[in-house]
Amino acid sequence: MTQTLTIPRPDDWHLHLRDGAMLQAVLPETARHFGRAIIMPNLVPPVVTGDQAAAYRDRILAALPGGMAFEPLMTLYLTEDTDPADVAAAHASGLVKAVKLYPAGATTNSASGVRDFDKVRPVLEKMAEIGLPLCTHGEVTDHDIDIFDREAVFIDRVLDPIRRSTPGLRVVMEHITTKNAADYVASQERDLGATITTHHLIINRNHILVGGIKPHYYCLPVAKREEHRLALRAAAVSGDKRYFLGTDSAPHTDPNKESACGCAGCFTATNTISLLAHVFEEEGALDKLAGFASEHGPAFYGLPVSDQTLTLTKSETAVAFPEKIETGDGPVTVFDPGFEVYWRAE
Ligand SMILES: NC(=O)N[C@@H](CC(=O)O)C(=O)O
Ligand SMILES: [Zn+2]
Ligand SMILES: [Zn+2]
User: Fold this and answer.
1) Which residues hold Zn(2+) 1 (predicted)?
2) If 9 and its partner were Cys, which of 174, 274, 308, 329 is the partner (CB 3.0–4.6 Å)?
3) For the whole prediction, is pTM greater than 0.95?
């Protein structure tokens, strides 16, 4: 008997679409399965103002193949010069759904991010007042902090102080990778959620380093020890509304990944939904997939759950995903989970 699972059409609450030829190639990979996505603003140059976000939204919609329905939910890239009034106007018009905080130097295209968190206080206060969420890349950048500790230290030194001094500020801890982060979310009563990626439910740091270095498993925050992966799985399948899917699908061309200084990012848009069904089945929690992928995110952002559905079917034979997708900028390798997957999305 074929096993099927029907869920409301999922959304991706953390996605990199890039621009130009790359946007053209990767957008259908997401739009095939997802109805909406929170679009990350770390372009070069970054999407800082409401006008830039409106123009980027238009480029995304122009790149969408005819017949595909997809709603990009735009974000603004927070800089020390961001104008609270511009943020408020972009929110009031319905264009912008979140503001993204990148500590300067923490990740890909974060050079224009925040160095001195006191400088963005007026923006954060305005956001708390109008109910506009802050999405955080939660890692400190101090040279004396080990890369595997940077997320946990960010919570103590940056995030918790910001939240205490800005009551009412709603925060999404993006792409959490540690038990520390999952526990912090669980300990907070209100105004806090977290996205979890597909790949952090599947790989730990051994996958990156054992048996030769695997650049396609390198992303930021870097995958941690197995105990952390297990904590993320427990959070994702818990049914707790504070955790939801943000794939952080982050395309880089193969030459930029397979390099002496490889870029951070895993490209998971193509096979994410099948991989998630596999993971949730492994955890005996297929009934929790709809919450994680389709319901908790809209609840946090105050949006309706999709009235469309996506059906997953478990087949006898493994699904054949492409190893790479071609883009006008060069090939992009699709995330390889290292196991066969039998769940197919219609
Ligand atoms: N996650 C990553 O490793 N890379 C992202 C940036 C980010 O989300 O930190 C990217 O833009 O490539
Ligand atoms: Zn990030
Ligand atoms: Zn990201």
Assistant:
1) 14, 16, 100, 248
2) 308
3) yes
